[in-house]
Amino acid sequence: MSLDRIDIEGTFNFRDIGGSPTSAGESTVEVGKVYRSDGLAQLTDKARADIRALGIRTVIDLRDIGERSKLPDALDGLDVNHIELPIFDDRFFPAKQLSIEEMKRVAEETGMDLSDRSLSRIYDLMIDHFGPRLAKAVDIIADSCEGGVIFHCSAGKDRTGVIAAFVLTLLGVGRHEILDEYSITSRHLSGGFLENIVKNFADAGISGNLAETATAAPPELMAKVLDSIDAKYGDNGVEDYLLEHGMDPMSPATLRRLLLAPADLD
């Protein structure tokens, strides 16, 4: 499994999701095709050269407009297809921060309590209300992975982490490896990076317990998400959840065809 951070200047949590074996042990996820990251607003010239060298042709920005407008991706000079796909549909971090009264009105109209920014609530909102966005992200990754793709949010762990877990599940990677891949973020975003990532969150207008929101990636939280989907949808829980929310039925097969390689059994 490829858990090591790739040293791209201006990022804290840039890594390849490849390298994991499938649960059957016959295949592994190819490296050098699909990457995940935190925000790309602080990229240097060297960072852009390194991204170019990785062969990345598509960048998927999962952040809301309130985050993107304050810290836009610094991709000047890169020949990439830059796709803005706000997972929270620009509702969680809108262009103008909602007042308490406006949040209450949204909660009454949609059932989304946007005032609760705890990690568990963020994940509940994502799964319960934004399935079509998650499904579209998986479709874009399937359509783009042959040419190299990176998807990212602000810290590269929650929106990015859910999508990575979904893609790896569709590829047949085991739950233990998926939870390891998710939780390694806590190590990448700790220590010397903590102050910088918390500042980035604050600059983007993200409030709350920033130390937790910015860095915590407890495996039990992702396990709860995946278990709840399996409990509702059965053995093919993630795939059926995504199909119900509009995923192209061909995307799982496309991902497996383009991202799985025979395992080295020597």
Automatic annotation (TrEMBL):
PROSITE patterns: TYR_PHOSPHATASE_1 (PS00383), TYR_PHOSPHATASE_2 (PS50056). SUPFAM superfamilies: (Phosphotyrosine protein) phosphatases II. Transmembrane segments: none annotated. Keywords: Hydrolase. InterPro entries: Prot-tyrosine_phosphatase-like (IPR029021), Tyr/Ser_Pase_IphP-type (IPR026893), Tyr_Pase_AS (IPR016130), Tyr_Pase_dom (IPR000387). Its EC number is 3.1.3.48. The keyword Chaperone does not apply. The keyword DNA repair does not apply. One of its GO terms (molecular function) is protein tyrosine phosphatase activity. Signal peptide: none annotated. It comes from the Bacteria. Residues 132-165 form the Tyrosine specific protein phosphatases domain. Belongs to the protein-tyrosine phosphatase family. This is Protein-tyrosine phosphatase.
